[in-house]
């Protein structure tokens, strides 16, 4: 299939985990993809695996200058940008009283401010295509409570998505958010964490956690023209957790 044929895509946090799963699927669907991440070794390896349809750009998503460089490099390599997937993010699970201001600002910068910077930076390029799609990866903790800092930032991504969707829709740019539940990634499927995740899975209505590829298929739908009438909306993939 070629649901993204001739589309130029930027995916942040693409060196591993969900971002890498998105990149593999997007290239398979015909896209030309700029993979961005701080992890140069893994990012370069993935770009090599994906071939001529992919490039890697080392990228600090909290830097406005880095965003300008990523947009310029992507345009020079592939042309105007059709799709941005704001996937980069970090987790934090400290009690409120143990969370320093530095901790709090760091998670907001990476999870929230980066989405603002990326959305702002990509608009001039997307205007050239008159057919842009921005997909912001939030979380079910952008809908219900969770850890301090992480929850705050993911709620903010949800709000930013709606505000940007209203402003950018007249320019042919759609903006939507994706809210995954627990995803099977190497980070959580090891040691004591694996046992806790497997126990939590028993409480999920579908009785399992998601594979990264299941989230990628939802992101693909939003990136493609199949979702041409969807903007400013939340798309949940949590196995039914938030339905309880």
Automatic annotation (TrEMBL):
Keywords: NAD, Oxidoreductase. Gene3D superfamilies: NAD(P)-binding Rossmann-like Domain. Residues 7-185 form the Ketoreductase domain. Belongs to the short-chain dehydrogenases/reductases (SDR) family. Coiled coil: none annotated. It comes from Marinospirillum insulare. The keyword Oxidoreductase applies. This is 3-alpha-hydroxysteroid dehydrogenase. The lineage of its organism: Bacteria, Pseudomonadati, Pseudomonadota, Gammaproteobacteria, Oceanospirillales. Pfam families: adh_short_C2 (PF13561).
